[in-house]
Amino acid sequence: MATPAHYPIGTPGRPWGDAEKAAWLEQQTRQRSYEKDVLSVIDTLRSRFDVDQYGRLDYAPDTYPLFAIKNRHWRDDLPWVLVTGGVHGYETSGVHGALQFVDEDAEAYAGRINLLVVPCVSPWAYERIHRWNALAIDPNRSFRENSPAPEAAALMNLVAPLRDRVLVHIDLHETTDTDETEFRPALAARDGVDHAPGEIPDGFYLVDDSEHPQPAFQQAVIAEVEKVTHIAPADDKGEIIGSPVVARGVINYPLRELGLCAGITQARYKTTTEVYPDSPRATPDQCNDAQAAAVRAAIEFALR
């Protein structure tokens, strides 16, 4: 049975209106710097990679330029690889793992792939360590036509010319303890429904596409990541976050139906990583390393 959870904004059972969303927004404060943590790192990569601005977010009084990193000398005869991070701004290793991969690994694939890396899809949320954007919208349920989330719309516009040509898309995420303490209760309050408490898995796992599953691909990524950090076990129901475990460390979602970032292309090989940064068995560096390892494994499998 769903257990109602108190959330300090709104009336239980009633979806938020403009007043509740404004009250929520008033509580959000900048806790870190996109410019310092992300843009400054991107600047250090400009001598080795092409960097394109593909959009700008305007959340007055703040504006955020959106950048994509590309390896040089793209060729039509090469496979295309898309890496995205920071769709949920609070999921730190998705951002920094993507940047780490570019810095340490991307040059090894020169002449083998056309690489497009978008390390921080949601910079407003990155600064506020939040899941939603300033409109109280989850970008990772908004990758659909006429998206209400400008972060999702900008990324979809960037990728649209390549949508049918991408071979691999790996979307870098985290599952955190705050999913249960803040973000899922906030979601229930926003939508006027009861919050059903869940269980946060201790370890790394992947989300495959239930419409076009690639089990061998997913297991190749799991095997490489396990060299860096531990893999999440199934719970007593044989599930991870409420979904059946279909293989070790893997669950399935209908990516496009749910409006998830990993479903924005026709890539044969696609996955969403989920790192657990709150584990006593994992450090921030391990989380970043796990994300970079997942990207390497995904590319290597696809190139075989």
Description:
This is M14 family metallocarboxypeptidase. With 304 residues, the chain is α/β, with parallel strands linked by helices. It has one domain: Zn peptidases (Aminopeptidase). The chain has 8 helices and 10 strands. The chain has an 8-stranded mixed sheet with strand order 1-2-4-3-5-10-6-9, with helices on both faces. Helix 2 runs parallel beside helix 3 and helix 7 runs antiparallel to helix 8 (284-303).
* Beta strand count: 10
**Numbering strands along the chain, what is their spatial order in the largest sheet?**
1-2-4-3-5-10-6-9
Strand % is: 15-25%
How do the helices and strands follow one another from N- to C-terminus?
A: HHEEEHEHHEHEHEEEEH
Number of helices: 8
Cofactor: Zn(2+)
InterPro entries: AstE_AspA_cat, Peptidase_M14
Keywords: Hydrolase, Metal-binding, Zinc
Protein name: M14 family metallocarboxypeptidase
What order do the helices and strands come in, and which of them pair?
Layout: H1 18-26, H2 34-45, E1 50-59, E2 62-70, E3 80-85, H3 92-104, E4 114-118, H4 123-128, H5 150-159, E5 166-174, H6 178-191, E6 205-209, H7 215-225, E7 239-240, E8 243-244, E9 250-253, E10 269-275, H8 284-303
Parallel strand pairs: 3-4, 3-5, 5-10, 6-9
Antiparallel strand pairs: 1-2, 2-4, 6-10, 7-8
Helix pairs in contact: 2-3, 3-8, 7-8
Keywords: Hydrolase, Metal-binding, Zinc
Pfam family, one: AstE_AspA_cat
Protein name: M14 family metallocarboxypeptidase
